[in-house]
Design a protein that fits this description.
The protein is mainly beta. The protein has 2 domains: 259 residues, no CATH class; 92 residues, no CATH class. The strands form 6 sheets. Strands 1, 2, 3, 4, 5, 6, 18 and 19 form an 8-stranded mixed sheet that branches. Strands 9-17-11-12 form a 4-stranded antiparallel sheet, with no helix packed on it. Strand 7 and strand 8 form a beta hairpin.
Amino acid sequence: MAVVSIDIKERGPYAGGMAFGDSGAYERLDGTVCFAVDPSAPANSLITDLELAPKNPANLVEFSADFRILKPVDQQKGSHRLFFDVVNRGNPLALMRINSAPASAPMDPGNGFLMRRGYTQVWCGWQHDVPSSPAALGINVPEASGPNGPVTGKIAVTFQPDTSGTTRMLSDRGHLPYPVNSLDQPEAELTVREHDSGPATVIPRAEWSFGKLEDGNIVPDASHVCMAAGFEPGKVYRCIYTTATAPVVGLGLAAVRDFISHIRYSTSEDNPCAGDIQHAMAFGSSQSGRFLRHMLYLAMNQDEEDRPVFDGIIANIAGGRRGEFNQRFGQPSNLVQVSTGSLFPFADIEQTDPETGQTGGLLSRLAARGK
């Protein structure tokens, strides 16, 4: 099993010990799950750059993620079903979407719908660039490196300010940035568009720099871009530069797969649901739904022992896209139309792309294996 250990850091009554009908009272568990995966295992063969990650003496790649579980105190009163909520940019959504919990309290039981039906509810961090906060669930993944050191390459970061200002972080929506590997980079490029698909105008390199404006002075900074003339609200800016930070983004998919597999199948003492879960389903809304679509596309709904992870998936308002969930220098929150998240295929069933002639579907890999 890919799960090495489960460290429960907090455990206590949920919702003040409230009873939810026949399911009784629930408890909440928060902690960290540690993994070690084999880069040579067939189930991991599609995880980008996994073979370039540091390995332990057993030749396994280690990483860890935050988790949260809500479960009946008396598991025999539950439905023996697991409901996994894919966090959206680190944030739980299902209790708001399904239980009508208020947006100001996303872990509130709301109307208690899922609890009254006895579901064990699970969350696990998967997005590597989520800023650390008490409310968000994140993941710690290793960085890829080659014979000559850290993997380097070009990355395009797009941002659309809603207020004027001279400094912007090199990230999407305030997520952790990919820092530049050199502050000079004369070949770096900054462009501006009136809208996402409009023509780009290159801003002269002398008019901007990698840094922050502090007390009227530009201070060099590898994680920010600064332009004295200021960034205009509503316009779309794109900065293309070289970074030497390449986290193995696709391990977020492995974390979800392996944690749910462990909760569902493992009888080890560290599994708080050992012997209880008979069925599992996943829910993801918007970005989280695209994550689930990508998981299916990579056939990662089968664990390392080729057992099913989820029996059903609800990809809510996910559209036809996937996302930058398994690529070098991936930005999982990226909503830019021109990105790998918009690549073919779009549908579950096999179709042929009229532009490229490529044939495929989201479920093609699973279907080829008889799943």
